[in-house]
Amino acid sequence: FDFSHYVPTGSGELREVEYIVNRSIREDVPVNTNVMNLEEAMDSGATALFGEKYSSSVRVVTVSDFSKELCGGTHVSRTGQIALFKITAETGVAAGIRRIEAVTGEKALKYVHDLEDRLAEVGKVVKSRPEEIPLKIRKIIEHNKELEKTVKKFKSDITRRSDGGGADERVIKGVKIVAKVFEELDAESLRIFVDEMKVNIKSGVVVAGSAYNGKAAIIVGVTKDLTKKLSAGKIVKEAASRVGGSGGGRPDMAQAGGPDADKVDEAVKSVFSIAEKFLTVSI
Q: Is 154 in contact with 141 (CB distance < 8 Å)?
């Protein structure tokens, strides 16, 4: 059923519509139909449906004093035959036009049963009775957020304590370059390492990479004093080609990713030759 309305209908309003319609269904009032000319029908107070076109002769469907509309479809003889009315969706279909989708009778009952089955399945998963499910899910979400914070802090602490041990350090054309590959470290943690190392070396380039969740992640950082000679964005873009991906960013910090996680080591080490090429051009 399409109707004119400029904002989404709230859940409370939809519930009220369901109550009103189902109350009329329970009253089991007669549904009367009369054929009359269009002008006479409109004068009698019948409602024309939005967007419909009517001929000179129209069918007027009256449900007691509850509803009086122009309609050419078939109808029950009493409202009680509808049994149950359940709204399943409310969406926007055009500017200022909303649409209600609903089911009736046995289909409405099946819809309710399907919802009950899904709710029961959720209850099994979270080990709660139906009435306890919302509270249990909120607790699970809050707990997960706390775990994520803990893991994030743990990774951050580990990364910050890393002094570059195991890193490949070289000086190319007077510029210090530090490259290190980590095992299973996300991009945020790699960025922390790069930021810390940039502070430690004071001047130079830092690159960090890792295979995380089956994908390659690479971060490149360039200290401010060297950004006119070297751009982290350009360096990481070239390195990313080794892992089948792409990347970019600012001159002082950039990141890349790609599907070829097994080539992270190769991509990180390629930064030495990439930096040398850019330094040669800038001289």
A: no
Which residue is listed with tokens 């350009």? Answer: 234
Q: Quote the tokens at residue 51.
A: 């967007």
Give the helix, strand, coil percentages of the chain, each rounded to 5: 45, 30, 25
User: Computed from CA positions of residues 105, 106, 111, 115, in that sequence, does the dihedral angle turn out positive or negative?
Assistant: positive
Q: Is 247 exposed, middle or buried (0-12, 13-18, 19+ CB in 10 A)?
A: buried
> Which residue do the tokens 């190769």 mark?
266
HSE at residue 179, side-chain half, CA atoms within 13 A, is 22
- Alpha-carbon dihedral angle through residues 69, 72, 78, 80, given to the nearest 10 degrees: -90
Element housing 183 (H / E): strand 175-183
pLDDT digits (tens, 9 = 90+) for 164-192: 567 889 999 999 999 999 888 888 889 98
Backbone torsions φ then ψ of 248, nearest 5 degrees: 170, 180
Element (H, E) at 102: strand 97-104
What confidence tens digit (pLDDT) does each residue in 253-283 have? 999 999 999 999 999 999 999 999 998 876 5
